[in-house]
């Protein structure tokens, strides 16, 4: 009888006790709105921003309602508007092109490599078509950020980083989100900290951040922030920036602060799980592991591998075989968008040319969540099941 995994791929850990206690305090005093402070009180949201800015070594931080909202706000702050083109990854999640579309702009998709990062050659070829690059570190894979920033400088591209999967990661010693003019993070349940929904924006640019603060719906209360630019930065901006409400509230901030203090330890736990899987999937015929560059300090909250040049039927056979044994794989080659998984061709509001090289890779991308509720033994079992199923199908189809 073949073994079956019984864990749940969508089960998070509970909110830490100190987060629950802080949330209860907010519920008891009732001041959930970030600008509703008692005398001498500093709102949880303002403290969260101050702490995350310090953690990332950023001058400024703004907490908002979601990661998608953070990205749209960054685009607006950079002056992106209707009809503008924005370069972005062909391999990413729907809220990324969605943020671009939300400001009336049009994505120009840039291809993906076998390392699952943005294709810098394709980027160089398309760089002159836009002024802004929304760079998505999809599934936590960081491209060569030194090369990317050099290329962006050369072409005068403004880089905004989508760090939904790289909160806590580094490239060449630098925190992810600190190379671009703004870094955007998500605090949604499936990311690295969990407040259900939520987002964070960091920057060193006082003008961009003043705009972002106004956009988020600060009314004229930006003086209550602790990680916002000084009042001078708002002098002009306050009259010309619309309020597009998307603030974070004190309840979420209270839940997040203790989680951010634990971020480093949590990231290490994710990576322990990753290495158990990755070592066990070494030398599985037909399966291509993703190379991780030396300079990348990643956070593996998910795991990807490639079944490169496999037929649809063979891939479906692997997915079905794994699913029967309790292992849920997501497939970026599915012609229909399913649940959270879709690709550039399914975003029909954003026209695109086919990209055969990227399509070949996307067709082979297998993706799996790695919640921290899985033990190392769970990960070893998942790896055995994947290896079994890939081997079974590989032998049958003689792929
Ligand atoms: C989740 C996610 C986002 C946006 O996060 P939300 O908080 O859900 O809006 C952005 N980019 C990527 C790659 C994501 O996975």
Task: Please provide a written account of the structure.
- With 399 residues, this protein is an alpha/beta fold.
- The chain has two domains: 17-261, Type I PLP-dependent aspartate aminotransferase-like (Major domain) (Aspartate Aminotransferase, domain 2); 263-397, Aspartate Aminotransferase, domain 1.
- Helix content is 38%, strand content 14%.
- It is built from 13 helices and 14 strands.
- The strands form three sheets. The protein has a seven-stranded mixed beta sheet, sandwiched between helices. Strands 10-12-14-13 form a four-stranded antiparallel beta sheet. A three-stranded antiparallel beta sheet has the order 7-6-11, with no helix packed on it.
- Helix 1 packs antiparallel against helix 9 and helix 3 (67-77) crosses helix 7.
- Pyridoxal-5'-phosphate is lined by residues 66-68, 92-93, 95-96, 136, 138, 162, 164-165, 186, 188, 199.
What is the helix/strand order?
HHEHEHEHEHEEEEEHHHHEEEHEHEH
**Unreliable stretches covering 5 or more consecutive residues:** none
Q: Class of the largest domain, according to the CATH hierarchy?
A: Alpha Beta
- Superfamily (CATH H level) name of the largest domain: Type I PLP-dependent aspartate aminotransferase-like (Major domain)
The CATH architecture of the largest domain comes to 3-Layer(aba) Sandwich
Let me know the average pLDDT.
97
Largest pleated sheet = 7 strands, mixed
| Hetero groups | pyridoxal-5'-phosphate
Radius of gyration: 22 Å
Number of strands: 14
Strand order of the largest sheet: 1-9-8-5-4-2-3
Write the CATH fold name of the largest domain: Aspartate Aminotransferase, domain 2
Shape: globular
Helix-and-strand structural type: alpha/beta
Helix content: 25-40%
Count of helical regions: 13
């Amino acid at each position: 009888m073949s073994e079956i995994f019984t864990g749940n791929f969508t089960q998070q850990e509970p909110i830490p006790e100190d987060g629950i206690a802080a949330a209860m305090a907010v519920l008891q005093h009732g001041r959930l709105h970030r600008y509703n402070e008692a005398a001498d009180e500093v709102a949880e949201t303002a403290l969260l921003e101050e702490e995350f800015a310090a953690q990332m070594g950023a001058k400024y931080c703004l907490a908002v309602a979601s990661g998608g909202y953070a990205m749209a706000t960054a685009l607006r702050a950079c002056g992106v508007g209707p009809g503008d083109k924005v370069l972005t990854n062909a391999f990413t999640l729907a809220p990324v092109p969605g943020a671009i579309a939300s400001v009336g702009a049009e994505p120009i998709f840039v291809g993906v490599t076998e390392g699952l990062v943005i294709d810098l050659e394709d980027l160089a070829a398309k760089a002159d078509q836009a002024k802004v690059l929304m760079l998505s570190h999809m599934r936590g894979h960081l491209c060569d950020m030194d090369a990317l920033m050099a290329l962006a400088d050369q072409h005068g591209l403004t880089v905004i980083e989508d760090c939904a999967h790289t909160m806590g990661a580094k490239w060449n010693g630098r925190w992810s989100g600190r190379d671009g003019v703004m870094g955007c993070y998500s605090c949604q349940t499936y990311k690295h900290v969990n407040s259900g929904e939520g987002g964070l924006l960091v920057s060193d640019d006082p003008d961009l951040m003043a705009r972002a603060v106004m956009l988020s719906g600060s009314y004229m209360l930006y003086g209550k922030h602790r990680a916002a630019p000084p009042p001078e930065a708002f002098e002009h901006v306050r009259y010309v920036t619309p309020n597009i409400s998307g603030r974070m509230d004190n309840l979420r901030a209270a839940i997040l602060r203790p989680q951010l203090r634990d971020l480093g330890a949590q990231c290490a736990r994710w990576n322990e799980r990753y290495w158990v899987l990755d070592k066990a999937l070494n030398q599985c015929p037909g399966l291509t592991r993703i190379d991780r560059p030396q300079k990348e300090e990643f956070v593996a909250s998910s795991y990807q591998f490639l079944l490169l040049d496999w037929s649809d039927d063979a891939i479906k056979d692997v997915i079905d075989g794994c699913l029967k044994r309790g292992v849920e794989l997501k497939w970026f080659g599915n012609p229909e968008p399913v649940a959270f998984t879709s690709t550039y061709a399914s975003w029909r509001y954003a026209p695109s040319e086919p990209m055969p090289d990227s399509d070949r890779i996307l067709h082979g991308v297998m993706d799996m969540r790695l919640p921290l509720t899985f033990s190392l033994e769970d990960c070893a079992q998942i790896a055995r099941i994947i290896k079994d199923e890939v081997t079974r199908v590989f032998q049958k189809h003689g792929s």
